[in-house]
Amino acid sequence: MNEIVLLCSLVFLAHAVKGLTGGGSAIVFNACLLVSLMAGLAGALELKDGLYFLAGADLVVTLAMAVLLWRELKFEKLTVLYLAGFLPVQALFTLVLPKLELEWLTLLLALAVTGAGLWLALRDEKPPAPRGAMLKLALPLGAVAGTIGGLFGMAGPVTFLLFTMADSDPGVIRRRVVFFTIAANTSRTAVLASEGVFTTTRLTWVAWALPFMLTGMALGMWLHRRVKPRPFRVTLGVLVALAGLAALAHFVVKHWL
Q1: Which single residue of 22, 81, 85, 180 could bond 138 by disulfide (Cβ 3.0 to 4.6 Å)?
Q2: How many CB atoms neighbour CB 130 within 10 A?
């Protein structure tokens, strides 16, 4: 029961952020999961359980957002090029995930979470870059994002980097992020399903958490027009970075000291 309570709480918070920004749910979920594991609050839950659960939960919420925002979604060259670089690399690293040792997976996730938090908190607000330059960057950045997307479902930092450099309109950014995450989450979940990681227990967790993730998403979408994005992003980034650093410190103390 502790596992279900924890997952429902984390998924509510994570998908409130997703509803607000169009993405970022994996960053928030993974940061909170690391802290929960480190503090002994996760019961019998292991890191991979949380990562597989998040893959299923994210797919459900992404499809729900797609239904609500379907009039805004459209094929755009920038997003399609980004996906062309992203999807093959994500598939490769998704296949690697079940084979990784838990300790090294924890360390990699702690490093990724810390970097994501620092990027959220410290990145500059810049005017949109020329369209041509963004189109050239889309394919290689997609490949970079595919690595952390495949391992942790956490392509958000690179994705937001590209889309915020290309446009400053929050509505356009969210539209592109949602379009991207539909393809990314569907692909990753399909690869994980082919590996047989979605056990009856893990699928039951997703079913229990469904009301919480949808309520969180609805809250975030309501807040979308009421929250100033920069203070929210900086605060979120600081909290995420602290969670990542705490997990890194715990890993070092446990394994090397």
Answers
A1: 81
A2: 10
209 vs 115: CA distance, rounded Å: 28
Q: Which two tokens stand for residue 74?
A: 């459209």
Within 8 A by CB and 6+ apart from 237, the residues are 116, 117, 118, 119, 120, 121, 122
List, as one string, the DSSP characters of 14-34: HHHHHHHHS--HHHHHHHHHH
Q: How far is CA 74 from CA 36, 84, 166, 174, 179, in A?
A: 38, 16, 16, 12, 8
CA angle (82 as vertex; 162, 159 as ends), nearest 5: 35
Is the pLDDT reported for residue 93 higher than 90? yes
Asked if pLDDT for residue 1 goes beyond 60, the answer is no
Mean pLDDT for the stretch of residues 121-149 = 83
Whether residue 22 has pLDDT greater than 70: no
- Number of C-alpha atoms within 13 angstroms, CB side, residue 5? 7
- Segment 234-247, tens digit of pLDDT: 777 887 888 888 88
Whole-number Å distance between alpha carbons of 199 and 255:
30
